[in-house]
Specification:
single chain, 290 residues, mainly alpha, Hypothetical protein af1432, 63% helix, globular
């Protein structure tokens, strides 16, 4: 199979809106979102929503007690986690941990799902660490943006397997970057498809922009820091060779992005060490934990 460049013009929004097997967000996340947005809800109400899903509750507690937080004392209940971590932060973690379980039926010839999520988790951890250095108010949103940054590729692998396969083969042999080849074949790339999916799910604009612009962060207008930190985190995760979503090479850094981030080069070495420190815990909890 050899596809001609621009042989298929894809509308990302039509792709995710019309596809019958595009996953929907888990009901527990939608219920949690409604509870958080309800002024009459209490921490107990929110804890009860999470508690309906025993697997999710157990996963969130393991995360709360992991190297991600390193709290001095053990957190034993969702109510404690809400107090210590925060309601908005738990919502973001619920989203991130739930999405991992949504995608099934993707051919191993296109992507190894364990490798895909390892790369995504590494990017999420790195984005969170960078946000911590910036003293951002809610660093979990950066973790989720990093975790979901390549989710558009999963839709490609599900709905456009021939074009995805051709892109993978060409990039592996030519040394080209996959997101550029995607755009040549389809007039869009996984960033466009991923952001369309997040909008289809009605997720916050900060996540949409972080995903949409992670290869072209200077295009982000409303949330430039989200896009910038995910851009940097993706490059670091690729350079560390922790899993892959299909990319064989390290994407280039947009120089102005580092300046926009306000970060010092001195944080790079401790950031790599922190990603290493947290990876084993997060892989155990998100990919192997039940």
């Amino acid at each position: 199979m050899n596809l001609d460049p621009r042989s298929l013009k894809i509308d990302p929004y039509k792709l995710v809106d019309d596809a019958p097997n595009v996953p929907s967000l888990p009901l527990v996340y939608e219920e949690l979102n409604q509870a958080i947005n309800d002024p009459s809800s209490s921490s107990t109400t929110i804890g009860d929503v999470i508690g309906k899903d025993a697997g999710l509750a157990a996963r969130l507690l393991r995360i709360a007690n992991s190297a991600l937080y390193s709290f001095p004392s053990r957190i034993d209940t969702i109510s404690q986690a809400i107090i210590v971590i925060g309601i908005q932060q738990l919502r973001d973690l619920t989203l991130g941990t739930s999405v991992i379980e949504l995608f099934e039926g993707i051919s191993i010839e296109l992507v190894n799902m364990d490798s895909f999520w390892r790369h995504s988790i590494a990017c999420g951890i790195c984005a969170r660490v960078l946000a911590t250095y910036r003293r951002e108010a809610n660093v979990e949103r950066y973790f989720v943006a990093g975790l979901l940054h390549d989710i558009g590729r999963l839709i490609m692998y599900l709905k456009l397997p021939d074009h995805a396969s051709e892109s993978l083969i060409r990039c592996k042999t030519s040394g080209e970057l996959m997101y550029k080849v995607e755009r040549e074949f389809m007039e869009c790339d996984h960033c466009d498809i991923g952001s369309a999916l997040l909008q289809h799910w009605k997720l916050p604009t900060n996540l949409v922009e972080g995903v949409m612009h992670h290869h072209y962060p200077l295009r982000a207008t409303r949330y430039p820091i989200e896009a910038s930190l995910v851009h940097i985190a993706d490059i670091i995760a690729n350079a560390m060779q922790i899993g892959t979503s299909g990319e064989h090479f390290v994407p280039p850094l947009v120089p102005e992005t580092w300046e926009r981030s306000g970060l010092s080069p001195s944080i790079l070495a401790p950031t790599l060490a922190e990603v290493d420190r947290q990876m084993a815990d997060m892989i155990e909890m998100l990919l192997k934990g039940s």
